[in-house]
Amino acid sequence: MRQVKRSLGFIYDTAITYPAPATLNYNYNFGIYALVVLALQIITGIFLVMFYCSNASLAFLSVEHLMRDVPYGWFIRYLHANGASFFFIVVYAHLFRGLYYGSYFFPRRLLWCSGVIILLLMIITSFLGYVLPWGQMSYWAATVITNLASTVPFFGQKIVNWLWSGFSVDNPTLSKFFSLHYILPFVILAFVLLHLALLHQSGSGTSSGWGRSIDEIPFHPYYTIKDFFSVILFIAIIIFFVSFIPNSLGHPDNYIPANPDQTPEHIVPEWYFLPFYAILRSIPNKLLGVIALVASIIFLLILPFIDRPLTRSSVYKPFIAKLNILFIADCFVLGYIGQSPLEEPFLFLGRLTTLIYFAYFFVFIIVSQIDRYFLKAVQKLPDNIVYNSLSK
Predict the structure, then answer these.
(1) Is the pLDDT score of 79 beyond 50?
(2) Domain ranges of the chain
(3) Which residues are known catalytic residues?
(4) Quick one: CA dihedral 45, 161, 117, 271, positive or negative?
(5) What SUPFAM superfamilies does this protein map onto (predicted)?
(6) What are the residues facing 21 on neighbouring strands?
(7) Which fold has domain 24-269?
(8) What is the overall mean pLDDT for the chain?
(9) pLDDT digits over 294-320, tens only?
């Protein structure tokens, strides 16, 4: 009973009386969108488990049976498949907003780190789920991605064999991936609850990038009404995609049963993996490519600990604002390169955009340190000198 009271008290403090800045706009709604999609993925996933068969000979047929014979099975399956895409859309938007407004600085370091861990778990879970339909692209994507572990010195091939549960991607691999794909969403949910608890502890930031706002209002009814309206609109967009263009974010080769004897012309993962896939392919050396792939996530994780400017938000730093926009554009270009063939000019563009991706972090840190130095220098000047220089 005491635990129930604590849980209800946490919900009440988080969703009702939580003091939120009065200046939050719709740019801060991506978190609630992600929570809605996560709930949608768990509910639809539980339904899909009832009809899915994790056997290499029957997996593709079980999905086709669900789509063709089960009443509204196609709708549930398309909700789940497109829900994964929308999950990544809102999380990426949430990430870019945090970068732009400096939401990862103290006291929100742990909050940011928990969000990056959620992103990493999402990537793993989505990859496992992409394999389950056992289509042609699912099979070969699983083969290519799991083979990346072979680059680990000394133990690489043993790790690959453990991932496969054998000597190739086959029925034991599918069973293992299915079990992990079912469990990991609940792990993500646990980290989401931790993320909310850390947000409740540190407080919501504002577009200015500073800490708690002086002008605060209770979360309910002001933001609950705003969030309810935007969530209804967001769900309407998802239903539109599911009803009219359900395959627009997928790959047509995945509607062909897996054939280990026939390699697709171009092996590509789902669109939300394409920027990371482009980074991997842009480096000729396989081991260095895997290191760069892992580093692309690690850099996001350690960013709050290596960058400590006095001015947080890009609103007050025009150069940093342009740098953030360049970084976002670079990620879009990486996504386009990731689905392009390995030939010129895509090879050159892939290496250039990969260089820009990693250079962003170094340039960002250097500029932030210069910004910190000049702000400290300005703070030491007499007020009349600062006022006169600004008035000119």
Answers:
(1) yes
(2) 24-269, 274-392
(3) 200, 204, 226-227, 270
(4) negative
(5) a domain/subunit of cytochrome bc1 complex (Ubiquinol-cytochrome c reductase), Transmembrane di-heme cytochromes
(6) 216
(7) Cytochrome Bc1 Complex; Chain C (1.20.810)
(8) 85
(9) 999 999 998 888 766 666 677 777 777
Architecture field, domain 274-392: Orthogonal Bundle (1.10)
Residues in the chain: 392
What is the CA angle 369-372-378, rounded to 5? Answer: 145
Could you tell me where the beta strands, DSSP code E, fall in the chain? 19-21, 216-218
Q: How many CB atoms are closer than 10 A to CB 188?
A: 22
Check if the beta carbon of residue 347 is closer than 8 Å to that of residue 355: no
One-character DSSP codes across 241-279: HHHH-TTTTS-GGGGSB--TT---SS----GGGHHHHHH
CA 188 to each of CA 29, 75, 159, 275, 302: distance values in angstroms, whole numbers, following the listed order: 19, 24, 24, 22, 20
* Residues annotated within a binding site for a ubiquinone: 200
Radius of gyration of the chain measured on its C-alpha atoms = 23
Tell me how far apart the alpha carbons of residues 60 and 57 are, in angstroms, rounded to a whole number. Answer: 7
Does residue 303 contact residue 363 with C-beta atoms inside 8 Å? Answer: no
| Confidence tier at 6 by pLDDT (50, 70, 90) | low
Binding positions for heme b are: 80, 94, 181, 195
Site of tokens 């609940």? 186
- Measuring CA to CA, how many Å separate 200 from each of 107, 194, 214, 249, 251? 12, 10, 16, 35, 40
Report d(CA 272, CA 172) in Å as an integer: 27
For residue 311, what are its two tokens? 């001015």
